[in-house]
Amino acid sequence: xxxxxxxxxxxxxxxxxxxxxxxxxxxxxxxxxxxxxxxxxxxxxxxxxxxxxxxxxxxxxxxxxxxxxxxxxxxxxxxxxxxxxxxxxxxxxxxxxxxxxxxxxxxxxxxxxxxxxxxxxxxxxxxxxxxxxxxxxxxxxxxxxxxxxxxxxxxxxxxxxxxxxxxxxxxxxxxxxxxxxxxxxxxxxxxxxxxxxxxxxxxxxxxxxxxxxxxxxxxxxxxxxxxxxxxxxxxxxxxxxxxxxxxxxxxxxxxxxxxxxxxxxxxxxxxxxxxxxxxxxxxxxxxxxxxxxxxxxxxxxxxxxxxxxxxxxxxxxxx
Length: 319
Description:
two-stranded antiparallel ribbon, 33% helix, globular, alpha+beta, 2 domains
């Protein structure tokens, strides 16, 4: 964000130490995205020092409803999220840390098990619900080594209606939001420069404007995919942005009665570039710099193997 007095008051620097202070004030955006369409339909904008959990709970209260399923990572998935989602008649599938809910209450036939989740997890009191824990490992296709156990927790309890393999595959759809963030920041050029607004109100207005622009692009992509019976993932985001940029002059000059025909032309142009199905990929979680909790990056990490297996071929259930 621009380094103005007003912005520093509401959105302070990420670190305040004199010699390691971040160069600009920063804001934290917690996003709620629809996995199938990549549409970001709500966001919470706060100071970077504020944690994500409060923003997540406010998004749940505003947007979740019956029939919805919330996918979330280990830093967000906790008893408060599970209880808040169930109060809205929604369900949750998220990742657990390595120490929570280790003792089964009921062991199910597929290897998963049920646990009790309490509002006060320390004293096992307050509002409670039953959740299901799934444990598995992923085999490294290049070395054959197994990963550390991955643990999921969900409010979808029936192992027949919600098979364990389907939930494992579904959880990894959570990474779709990382692609959306890349599209939003890289291809809409959000990360290429700081925002222009010198006031906190202007910062929020500018961020919501960028989110609405992304929403408009994704809505056009979904409409194009729907007409051709494609998966929205098969429509190219970069190509769609270029189509919109080339068509701006026509849209500005068109009268109201010409716009439906122009829209159909846009949808046809968007479908001229089809993204192939994604191949299975693995990327080692290592870094080049030292003093990090991740392992150091070596030459072997630069060339990921070409994989022909499906993801579930590499999953080893912990039963």
